[in-house]
Design goal:
two-stranded antiparallel ribbon; six-stranded mixed β-sheet; 2 helices
């Protein structure tokens, strides 16, 4: 994934805040659930704000669909996953807590990969009996 944003250019154009949209095929190796895969591209709708120190705050939503076998009954199922995304990018940062960028350009690849991984469920269950509260396996 190579999704770049030029902070210097945005500053020169006085675009200190704005919207970004990315659509991409996620890395299948992120999924740790057997017999499950991504059935749609990941969509990231983000809002950026460049701060006075050239750090950049990014917020927004990430959405994708998983398809595969229910982790309980093995029936074919599909689930739409949506969640909030939030990141903080600092120029030439080495603290390990924030995302770093250099030469005035942010590469959102690591951030997007982390956000998708964070949203993945531990298991995929069908919307019928397996997802019902109080379900007990035999």
């Amino acid at each position: 994934m190579a999704f770049k944003f030029d902070v210097r250019r945005a500053n020169a154009e006085k675009k200190y805040a704005g919207d970004l949209f990315f659509s991409f095929e996620a890395d299948p190796s992120l999924i740790g659930i057997p017999f499950v895969g991504f059935s749609s591209p990941v969509e990231a709708r983000l809002r950026y704000e460049i701060l006075e120190d050239d750090s950049v705050e990014v917020t927004g939503r990430i959405a994708f669909t998983l398809k595969g076998s229910c982790s309980r009954c093995l029936k074919e199922t599909e689930q739409r996953i949506e969640g909030e995304a939030e990141g903080y990018f600092v120029p030439d940062c080495e603290n390990g807590e924030d995302y770093s960028y250099s030469n005035g350009v942010i590469d959102f690849g690591e951030f997007l990969r982390d956000e998708v991984a964070f949203l993945l469920p531990a298991r995929l269950v069908c919307s019928e009996t397996c997802a019902a509260p109080g379900y007990k396996e035999d």
